[in-house]
């Protein structure tokens, strides 16, 4: 059954390809009949013999019929074209036998017809048809045997011999069988080869589709990738579209999710997010969603306004979708969005994406889930930051920084008891650059360790002169970044450098902020203990600004507690803030810590502080940071 089915499939598929072949047969047969017709007119030009007008008319008519079928192509059904070819050949053969007997071309016509049967008809039908056609000479032999017809003696005596006609039929039957066997074998192989080629072509097309999918679609989310998105949007731009928007969506905290739950879980979130975005925009004409890989998706939106998009962003909450609920994910999903308008903000796609990335950098600094539209000032800020970064790399390694010192004053005696070292940097192109601007650039560009060493070594070089100016009892505070503080062999480097430059460690105070404790607290405890054992004091800086965990103060022995300026700004007018400040000072006293208040700018703040147990103040009320050397 399977073999028969395969043969049927082979034949069906092969039959679809016979139409072009039959058209070639038709044009060839039409040409041959036209040549035969012209040969019948040859006596007109040679003067020998008689013109056979009957054969001329028949041949020319069949030539015209076959040529007409050729011109009509598939408008004439295949079975009709085959049948017309058979009828034509049979008619010509019978007509030739009747006119010329065995001397005519009827046998050649029948042989052509037998071959045509095997080419255009199924095997069994073609064999039966060929055998029937082969009996045509035998039919004439029978008519001669019963004296129904008789040929003129001028055509030869063998035409009136029934045995010759029977031999002619037998030769055609043998020709039919042998030709059928050969053609069927060849056709079977040909059909199989055609089917194999078609199957191979189908496999190639499927492979090509897979390759195209790999090339043009993100394998995780099945959304268009960056390459296909660029092509689609470029086509939209080239078509003359206007007033469109490009949005970039960035998922927050995907690295944390991967670390907590595994990369597979993070991939699942990306897949679901892509699904939600696609479902949300499928019914919106003029919206194209794509994945940029990683944790970013990009949208092209037409026929909208900024206000419509802003409202949609506010209403669109991934966590409200049934696929991405916090209960299901075990994590609340948050995202950032930046946007740019075409062609107002940019006219080229690469320029739009570049500016969109700039707006995303600004969005990352925002804590609100709202869209951040690109503004020209953002680009200027990025350009400035890049220039500053390039200059900072040179400045760090050439120690091109200055140190300003701000006095710390005893709140009771008003004597200067310490100095805080603060880095200052200026450039001819930009002038004075604020630490609030260049310190984050240094931190993000991984220059913080060489920068920390640069500032530390400069301060150490100033200590002898500072002791001469302020007295031997003075202590100099240096801010140490968490990255530098946790740098391998930090303590060894500090002690070794102090020893080489003959500086007494008791003159130093290292101020560290609370974010350093995000790492292992046992490591911090060991570093602080070792520093204090060498005589270096350690101060907890910006207390209250960050995490303010009493756990740190319980585990680690500090020397000072430095209260952040945000606690002191409103103590003169806010009883609540004052009570909080007073509680912090009592807490520090109970732990044996010296309390330092920074950012004191007026006498009202100072009067309030004197009502607490605060020991030292620092701020513009007493002194501004001053560059004493360099």
Give an overview in words.
This protein is α/β, with parallel strands linked by helices. It has 24 helices and 15 strands. The strands form two sheets. The protein has an eight-stranded mixed β-barrel with strand order 6-7-9-10-11-12-13-14. A five-stranded mixed sheet has the order 2-3-1-4-5, sandwiched between helices. Helix 5 runs antiparallel to helix 6, helix 6 packs parallel to helix 9 and helix 11 crosses helix 12. The chain starts with a helix and ends with a strand. 30% of the residues are buried. Keywords: Membrane, Transmembrane, Transmembrane helix. It comes from Leptospira montravelensis.
Helix-strand layout with pairing:
Layout (H helix, E strand, L loop, with lengths): L1 H14 L2 H23 L2 H4 L6 H20 L5 H23 L5 H15 L2 H12 L1 H10 L16 H55 L9 H13 L5 E8 L2 H8 L1 H19 L5 E5 L4 E6 L4 H10 L10 H4 L5 E8 L6 H16 L6 E3 L2 H22 L4 E9 L5 E12 L3 E3 L1 H10 L3 H23 L4 E5 L2 H4 L4 H11 L7 E6 L7 H13 L3 E7 L6 H6 L4 E4 L11 H16 L3 E5 L4 H8 L5 E3 L7 E2 L3
Parallel strand pairs: 4-5, 7-9, 9-10, 10-11, 11-12, 12-13, 13-14
Antiparallel strand pairs: 1-3, 1-4, 2-3, 6-7, 6-14, 6-15, 7-8
